[in-house]
Amino acid sequence: MKPTIAPYPAARARRTRQSEGIRGLVRENVLTVNDMIWPVFVRDGEGIEEPVPSMPGVVRRSVDLIAKAAVEAQALGIPAICIFPYTDASLKTEDCAEAWNPDNLSNRAIRAIKAAAPDIAVMTDVALDPYNINGHDGYVENGEIVNDRTIEALVKMTLAQADAGADIIGPSDMMDGRIGAMRQALEGAGHHNVMILSYAAKYASAFYGPFRDAVGASGALTGDKKTYQMDPANGNEALRMIERDLTEGADMVMVKPGMPYLDICRRVKDGFGVPTYAYQVSGEYAMVQAAAQNGWIDGEKVMLESLMAFKRAGCDGVLTYFAPAVAKILQG
Ligand SMILES: NCc1[nH]cc(CCC(=O)O)c1CC(=O)O
């Protein structure tokens, strides 16, 4: 579509910017509470809310307080919550068996949320990093992150999460072939309605730093994730990954990180027309909060502007740590 514009003064762009009402009338995109998935961090214990220093405003909550937070999120109209466990170092092993323990932190949190707030969808994270002694998303053998054996573990993890009541499985591991294996296992186990939101275009990004603090994986990680996460220089590869995951049975796809990858969001939406999500990751959140705390930017305005950018780029929704703050503003 080629925009048509008359020469000045027949056209004065400022006519349609003259008041809030008129600006609203011509506005192309809206941000609503329906557009947000809220990532939360869960830890063990009871009655605990522990700040994450590198993510001001974000806390790790014990299971009881995660359930309480989910009730509040549900009341705010947030459609989905995504659980990330902070796993005690003593539970990290080479075989990552805690990952598919039906009573691990994440699965207990799923059950607690489903019991307390049945109308909010629960999304999970599928990757071995919280449980892996070396902080990687897959098994490490002789210094190599091995693909196929990791998939077997990821499938067990997926089934344990679905059994616990997860609505949306979120594979963030970037192994090849995992979506097909998970979909087949879910169908086989009768979990026909469990959705997969694939981290299909996930980049090997430095923007995940604060998250690794939040889940206690920073110290554990040896090396980097470049043999499985994508090279930030690549765009066409993202489209191939999206297409592959859709063919294997993903219901929804994600681009991650968010703001530095808005070009990818737009290409995915235009190319496939499927439910498209972006993850506004921990480093993006931390940058906004840090600058706001220093008085260098208006944190609330930047938060809203950054989320509107995802809508403009074609996203149907965003995983954002700002979800409750935004929901409160939108509720008025
Ligand atoms: N599989 C782990 C995982 N799941 C979500 C994030 C990052 C989220 C964020 O930075 O907010 C990561 C970190 C990583 O891949 O190292």
UniProtKB/TrEMBL annotation:
It catalyses: 2 5-aminolevulinate = porphobilinogen + 2 H2O + H(+). SUPFAM superfamilies: Aldolase (SSF51569). The active site is at residues 202, 256. PROSITE patterns: D_ALA_DEHYDRATASE (PS00169). Its EC number is 4.2.1.24. Keywords: Heme biosynthesis, Lyase, Porphyrin biosynthesis. InterPro entries: ALAD, ALAD_AS, Aldolase_TIM. Pathway: Porphyrin-containing compound metabolism; protoporphyrin-IX biosynthesis; coproporphyrinogen-III from 5-aminolevulinate: step 1/4. GO terms for biological process: protoporphyrinogen IX biosynthetic process. Signal peptide: none annotated. GO terms for cellular component: cytosol. GO terms for molecular function: porphobilinogen synthase activity; zinc ion binding. Homooctamer. Belongs to the ALAD family. NCBIfam families: PRK09283.1. This is Delta-aminolevulinic acid dehydratase. It comes from Falsiruegeria litorea R37. The lineage of its organism: Bacteria, Pseudomonadati, Pseudomonadota, Alphaproteobacteria, Rhodobacterales.
